[in-house]
Design brief:
This protein has 3 helices and 8 strands. It is α+β, with helices and mostly antiparallel strands and 109 residues long. It has one domain (2-92): ADP-ribosylation fold. The N and C termini lie close together (6 Å). A 3-stranded antiparallel sheet has the order 1-4-8. A 3-stranded antiparallel sheet has the order 3-6-5.
Length: 109
């Protein structure tokens, strides 16, 4: 399982495949593993309230683990749109009052 958060409106406008802005800007869609989600969201999107967390079954996707920004940690990246059928769950993902994030209850592994 890999995870991606995005604006609720962007997800609601998705047709058959989800395409994040980063796919056009950087050539790939950023994902995180479960243990990376809260820390990474807190660092990159503090205070955002209108996010959803996509729980994605990566079994039919070509996932590349890489450290693109020399952070000393590899993150999953996908270099193509994500078929909606690969998204097994969508959960509300608002930040806490202090702007940080925590994993939603019932997050699949």
């Amino acid at each position: 399982m890999i995870y991606h958060w995005c604006d609720r409106g962007d997800w609601e406008e998705t047709g058959e495949a989800y395409t994040a802005p980063s796919l056009m800007e950087e050539g790939f869609i950023h994902f995180s593993y479960k243990h990376q989600v809260a820390r990474t969201a807190s660092a990159t999107d503090p205070g955002h309230q209108n996010l959803v967390l996509l729980c994605v079954d990566e079994s039919d996707l070509e996932v590349v683990d890489e450290d693109c920004y020399d952070l000393g940690e590899k993150y999953p990246h996908v270099y193509s749109p994500i078929p909606v059928a690969s998204v097994i769950r969508v959960l509300p993902f608002p930040s806490r009052p202090d702007g940080t994030f925590r994993l939603p209850e019932g997050l699949p592994d």
